[in-house]
Amino acid sequence: MPTPALREYGRMTAPRSTHEKQTDAIRVYTHNIYARRADWSSRRRVLIEGLHRTAPDIVLFQEEVLTAEYDQTADVLGEKWNIAHSQARSADEDSGISVASRWPLEVVAEIDLTAGGRAVDEYIWASLVVRVHTPSGPVIIANHFPEAAADGEIERQRQAVLVAQELESLASSDDAPMVIAGDFNAEPDAASLRFLTGKQPIDQASVVYVRTWDAVHPDETCVTLDPANPLVAAGLPGWPYREIDHILVRCGASGTSIMRIDACERVLDRPYAGTWASDHYGVVADLSAPGTFP
User: Fold this and answer.
1) pTM for this structure?
2) Which of 53, 89, 113, 186 has its C-alpha lying 20 to 30 A from 161's C-alpha?
3) SS3 for 191?
């Protein structure tokens, strides 16, 4: 497999706080929040209220804005979060990806998914890899934001291999807990998702992760880019892909998921007071930390 292009970071300093939590479950939330487009002031209130109700421990945002004057992730989440941002930013909006944690975290690497690929049209596609120091031990989390073009699955395949390669290089053992989540811009039957879920090798490589939605709702779809949402109808009319936001959990030596998947739900999937939170819906999963299984 090719070596991924990485932007290396040191350990984050001065974490804002630790999370006073009495359970070993980890609630992971991923959401493409649509930058500051489409009446951001109204959408901001809906996101803040929705996140308060959902109460995640780890948050992965895509299309979040970071400038010298404004941190959209911090604005939405509030205080007492440790936040890491990608260096990769869109030229027009300064939007990229972030990971926020109630527990201390360190950035391991940022993978430049555009390296060796076709010319970038809008976003500098990237995966942001962090180590979160949960009370039950470290968990590696990757916020994965690959190529979005409808005809770009060949790029998404290549990018899936890059992030999988990087995570495997970080694994301390066959049973090291790892999560890949984000806006994959691909449905479960796409080659990039089939590769990550162990159904299809690419470039003589194979890995296996479990999609949390499938573990909880095996006979249901999880549409997150929905034409019923007017932001999708206005911005992406006729877009062919609908089920594109995912949370994946690495499988261990036994072939089963290393972290038990206790729940997975779609959230912020309806308007509140006439306002939709984003053009995407959020996905949240409750994971039992390693070593805490009954």
Assistant:
1) 0.91
2) 89
3) helix
